[in-house]
Amino acid sequence: MASKGKSRWAETEEDAELAARQKREKEEKKRMKAEKARRQQEALEAQKAKEATAATQEDGDDGRPVKRRRLSPEASATNGTGEAASNTAPKLLRFNGGGFGKCRSVENYDKLNDIEEGAYGWVARAKELATGKIVALKRLKIDPKDRSGLPVTGLREIQILRDCDHRNVVKLKEVVVGEDTRKIENIFLALEFVEHDLKSILEDMPEPFLASEVKTLLLQLASGVSYLHDHWILHRDLKTSNLLLNNRGQLKIADFGMARYVGDPPPPKLTQLVVTLWYRAPELLLGASRYGAAIDMWSIGCIFGELLTREPLLQGKNEVDELGLIFDLCGVPNEDSWPGFRRLPNARSLRLPSGKDARTAGSAIRVRFPLLTTAGVSLLNGLLALDPEKRPTAKEMLAHEYFRQDPKPKQEAMFPTFPSKAGQERRRRRETPNAPMRGGAAEIGAVDFSGIFTGREREEKGGGFALRMV
User: Do the domain assignments include residue 78?
Assistant: First the structure.
């Protein structure tokens, strides 16, 4: 019987040899891969051990570094060619990232006397026990019933004061806390002590500041505000009681409880309830929720007028009365002088003068300040422009012609000195409005201003004086 034939698909000896070779190659690759992973793991462990050893050698017994680690090459180091390495190797930059640490206790200071109490805290004069230096100790006002903890006004004030470094901005030395750290209301700001605030000086002066002294104060104020605005900070409560003056004629801006950072463009919705009423810009009174540095410049204009007369310029009893005083001094707005003002929430229901009254409703700043020079009137008119877009910036104010005319600004070293009211003497305080508290903005409703200029057409204005026809 014939034998069964072999299939043509059966494996040959060559096929078996090829399969065995492929198997050996696969196993060799797997072995090499495992060997590579093992070497990488060993290198990583060796690096960690090396770093741990170096850290142990650098630290002392108490865990603190014995020697500061050098991050940049030495100036005397040389490279391989014998040239100074500092000429070729770039220096590494050192960035101070700061860190968290425990605040010192307020018991490090000895309270001497109270200075004043404001809307967002009280201030006392104190002496640091270790150095004997005098500071102003400000305690933040915190409502124990407020479950939100530290108010945002306090956080903003601490942040802004820590970031600011300018000769016309008060300096924050440190933040200290009470002995019982469980009570969040025991938070104090240790600020540099400045002898006077501008408001108390104006109240006690027998005569107003000289023109040269007014220029010196305004230049310092504009310089400080320019620094703030360049760093995207709005103060939002500039007034004479928040401007400090030391016995060397140096002015410093203080009280940043209502200040905040803004950008360009500013946030689309900001609180309208800012700035003390007598220094509040008309756009805020009319309900603007988007504003910028121009509100601080309006406040500077109000301060300018107060320096000239020793009296607050616009002493309104409420928002409606304040608007009436503004329109009486600066004129009534229209679409030419203030385009788009009617679109502001509180401006839609205002009744403003028309006809003959509207023609006589211009600015009365020249009549109000007859002794002010033409350049001074120009600057004051610009600062108190109803349209915020027409007010000068702080930098533009510094370059104004008013400060280049005679009399020139008085040197700070020649500034007069005054007895300090921040000592043990009780200061004579007057009833003035406080800064606005957090909450909803005031609604002024429908108001009729159409008759506030009645009788003005009977005044004949001349060069620095006014005649009333009888």
Answer: no
CB neighbour list of residue 30: distance below 8 Å, 6 or more residues apart: none
Whether residues 243 and 162 share a domain: the answer is: no
Residue 360 and residue 460 in one domain: yes
Beta bridge partners of 244: 197, 252
Distance of CA 38 to the CA centre of its chain: 57
Residues 315-328 have pLDDT tens digits of 999 999 999 999 99
Cβ atoms within 10 Å of 309's Cβ, excluding its own: 12
Nearest in space to 160 (alpha carbons), one of 117, 122, 189: 189
Six-digit token string for 165: 């470094």
**Quick one: tokens of 48?**
């960690």
3-state secondary structure of 324: helix
Q: Which two tokens stand for residue 332?
A: 């009534």
Residue with more model confidence, 239 or 456: 239
Asked if residue 166 and residue 139 are part of one domain, the reply reads yes
Contacts of 335 (CB under 8 A, 6+ apart): 341, 342
**Residues 342-380: pLDDT tens digits?**
899 888 888 887 655 555 567 889 999 999 999 999 999
Residue whose C-alpha is closest to residue 384's, from 306, 301, 448: 301
Structural tokens at position 380: 């004051």
Q: Which two tokens stand for residue 241?
A: 């009681």
Structural domain includes residue 29: no
Q: What token pair was written down for 318?
A: 């409420």
Instruction: Give the domain CATH number at 206.
Output: 1.10.510.10
Catalytic annotation, residues: 237
Q: Which amino acid is at 302?
A: C
Containing domain of residue 393, as a range?
A: 197-468
Q: State the residue for tokens 């770039």.
A: 90
* Residue 323 to residue 187: CA distance in whole angstroms: 38
Last residue of a domain, one of 170, 192, 214: 192
Spatial contact of 383 and 293, defined as CB atoms under 8 Å apart: no
Q: Do 365 and 329 meet the contact criterion of CB atoms below 8 Å apart?
A: yes
Which residues on neighbouring strands pair with residue 245, listed in sequence order?
Answer: 196, 251
What total number of domains does the chain contain? 2
